[in-house]
Protein: 2-oxoglutarate ferredoxin oxidoreductase subunit gamma
Organism: Desulfoprunum benzoelyticum
Amino acid sequence: MKRVRLVFSGSGGQGVITAAIILAEAAVIIEGLNATQSQSYGAAARGGATRTDIIISEEEINFPGVTSPNILVCLTQEAYNQYAAVIRPGGLLLTDSRSVTTAKKTDAKHIGLPLYDTVMERIGKPIVYNITMLGALIGITDIVRPESVLAILKERIPPDFLAMNQRAFDLGLVLGAQYQCRL
């Protein structure tokens, strides 16, 4: 992995920005890579469009924005409609199969996973939806090691909620592992 450009997108309140921060911190603090993370919000705090750009690189990063991601994660139909066209040819498009119906032809590997349904069925609390998504992404790719993300979760998550977040991450890893691919 020389450089990976990611966009996580969804709606406010889904935790895509938190997931991006955790991923960037795992890359920098634990794995010694370079990373940037930036975000933009829609007009509404909750329910409005949310996008976060992450770049992880072995080399210096000169510009933090992502115009053509290797990996695009869309958790809502609105996010998919808005960003599907920008994915880099040969990239990875990860969607929640409950919320996103793909219609556009993209030159990307599309993986639709039942992220939200799995969280609700196995944990019953949507607050860890973002961590399940992050686990699925790590299960699919080799961006960072799972133990690096877990180390950051232990630092960021209050002790009372850590076990639930670890379980959500593990659920995502299992969902994603069946689709492993190298970037």
Summary: The first strand starts at residue 3 and ends at 11.
